[in-house]
Amino acid sequence: MESRVLKPILAVYVVAFILFLYGPFFVLTIISFQQGPDGGPQFPITEWSLYWYKQIFGLTPPSRIAPLPVGEALVRSLILAFMTMVTATVLGVMSAQAFRRKFRGSTFVFYMIVLGMMVPGVLTGLGTSLLANNVIGITRHWYTTAFATHVAYTYPFAFLVMLAILNRFDASVEEAAWSLGVKPWTTFRKVTFPLIFPGVLSAMLFAFTLSLDEFPRSLFAAGGSEDQTLPLAIYGTFSVEIHPNIFAFGVLTTLFSFALLSVYGILMAMSVRRARKLAMQEDIA
Amino acid sequence: MATQAEIFRIDGVSKSYGGVKALDGVTLEAGVNEYLSLLGPSGSGKTTLLRVIAGFEAPDSGRVFFQGRDVTHLPAHERGIGFVFQNFALFPHLTVRQNVAFGMANGVEKVAEAEIAERTQSVIDMVGLTGMEDRGVEQISGGQRQRVALARTLVMHPKLVLLDEPLGALDANLRGRMRNELRAIRERMGVTFLHVTGSETEALAMGDRVVVLDRGQIIQSGTPDDVYSTPASPAVAHFLNRFNLFEGSLSGGNFTGPFGAVAAPTARRASEDVYAIRYDRVRVVPAASKVTGPALTARYVASEYLGSSVMNFFETADGKVVEVEHHLSLGAPETYEARQNYLLTWEPDQAIVFGREGK
What we know:
The complex is a heterodimer of chains A (285) and B (359).
Chain A: H1 2-32, H2 51-56, H3 71-98, H4 106-118, H5 121-136, H6 145-167, H7 172-179, H8 184-212, H9 216-221, H10 230-238, H11 245-284
Helix pairs in contact in A: 1-11, 3-6, 3-8, 3-10, 4-6, 5-6, 6-8, 7-8, 8-11
Chain B: E1 6-17, E2 20-31, E3 35-39, H1 46-54, E4 61-66, E5 69-70, E6 82-84, H2 96-106, H3 113-126, H4 142-154, E7 160-164, H5 172-189, E8 192-197, H6 200-206, E9 209-214, E10 217-222, H7 224-229, H8 234-240, E11 243-247, E12 249-251, E13 254-257, E14 260-263, E15 268-269, E16 274-278, E17 283-286, E18 296-305, E19 309-316, E20 321-327, E21 341-345, E22 352-355
Parallel strand pairs in B: 3-8, 3-9, 6-7, 7-8, 15-22
Antiparallel strand pairs in B: 1-2, 1-4, 4-5, 9-10, 11-16, 12-13, 13-14, 16-22, 17-21, 18-19, 18-21, 19-20
C-alpha cells in the first residue's frame, strides 16, 4: 500500500531532480546554436547556426565580437589538472598505504589531510595569496601557488578513495609474495598496484576534474592575467558582455568531460568484469 | 626426534594483541624433513605462531631460529620460509605459470630465464597441473588453486613450509585426496612441513608428530598414536573429539562420577578431576541388565551413519550427551528405541582418568 503512494512521489521527485540538473545544460546547448554575430543569449533563438562554434576555432571573418580569450588558459588548465592529478594521486596512494597500519597520531594526520576538502576554497586561496605575497615574498603563478592549493584540495579525495579501496584489500597476497622472497617494493609494484588500479583510476579522475574547474582557490592564488586558468578566463569574459560563444565553448568542454568519463567507464568495466568473473568462479568452486 | 638435525626452533615466544595473549612462552622445534602438525581450536594462537615463524609478525619476546640462525628480526622476504595460506592468496591478475614463477622472476636472487621456465614446468608437472599453465587462477577449481599455491611455494626450494589450514577451504572429498598428495609431495621434496589445522583427524593423519596448542601454550607434543591414546590433559582429550568426558571426583584411587564409583589406579595428574572414555569403547545394554563396573542410564536420542561406523547419541538425566561409536566391521549396528532408557557401560581399564591426585 505504502509503495503505491510513495513510488509515484519518488518518481516525480527524481524527474524533477534530473530536469533541474540537466535543464541549464539543455538551454545552454540550444543557445549555443544561435545565429551570429548579432544574435545574443536570448531564448527562444532567432535562427539556428554553427556560427559560434566556428568562431571559437577562428573560422569566422573578424567582427565586433572578440574571440574568446581561452586558448592559452585552456592549455594552462589542462597542464595544471594533469600535474595536480599525478601529485594528488601519488600522495593519496602513499598516505592511504601508510594508514593500513595504525600509527601514533594517525587520527590527527587523517583530519589534517581531510581538512583540505573541508576548508572553504576562498579562504585557502586568499590565505595562500597572503602567504606568498606578504610572508614568503614570492610571485604567484598558476604552476606554483595555484598548483599547491589544487593539490591540497584534491589530495583528500584521492586519499579517501584509496583508503576505501585498501580497506577491502586482502593483504595475504602481499604476504605470499614476501614469503616467496620478493622485496616489499617489488611486491607493491607487481601485486598491490595492479590489484588496486581501479581505485587509482577513480582517484585520478577525481583529482583531474576537480582541478580542471576549480575556481575560488585559483582566483586568489593564480596571479595575474598571464596566469589565468580556464574558469578564470571564462569568468573574465562575463564582466564585459555575454555572447553565445561562451555557451558553445561550454558544450565543447562538457563533451570533453563526457569523453573522459567514458574512457574511465570502459577501463573500470573491464577491471570490474575481471573481478566479477573471479568472484563467480569462487562461488562455483 | 632429537636425533634429527634441527631446522627451526622457537624459544619462549610470546605475542599479545591489545592485552590478549595469543602466544604465551611457546617453545617448539622441528627436525629436517619432519612433518609436524599443530592442532588447536580457533583462537588457540596457532595461526599467530605460523605468522611469527614466517616473519609477518614480530614476537613481543622470545627468539626464532631457522637453520641455526637467529631470524627473529629478519623481514619475511629474507627468511626463505614457504607459506601456504588457507585462502591460497594466489595473485589473481596472473596465470598459473606466472603465479608459480613469481618468486623466481621477482625475487632478490636473479634466476636465469631458462632455469625459471624449467623449474616452473617441472613443479607444475609434479602437482598435476600440466596443461593448465596459461589459465588465469580464477579459471581453475579450488583443488587446482591449492596445487598452484603449493607449487608456487615449493618451486623456491624452501627448507621449511608453513601451511595454515591448507585444506580448510576444500570439500571433504578433495581434502582426503590432497592429504595423500601433500604427504607424497613432501616425501619427494625432503622439506619440513609445519601444518596448522583445527581438525583432529587431519592432525592425526598427517603428522609425524602432533603438537596441541591451547590458549597460546603447547599442552602436548608427541606421535599421533601417543596423543590419541594417551592425551596429556582433559583439554587435549576434548580437542581430539573422540572421548566422552565426565566430571566427578577422584579420591583414594577411586573416581566417582554419574556412572558410580570406579577404581582408577592409573589416574594422571591434572588441574581438574575428569574421566574420559573413548566413543568406541562404550557398550550399550538393556536398561534392566545387571553390570559390574561403571553403569550410566541414558536415553537414546538419535544416530548418525558415518560410512564405516555408526555414531549413537544418548542423553543422561542431567542433559549430558554421551556418544557411542559402533564400528561396522564389528557387525551390523543394533537398533535402539527412541526415547528409551539404556545402560551404558565399559571396561574401566580402557578409561583415562585425570585428577588432582593423579601421578
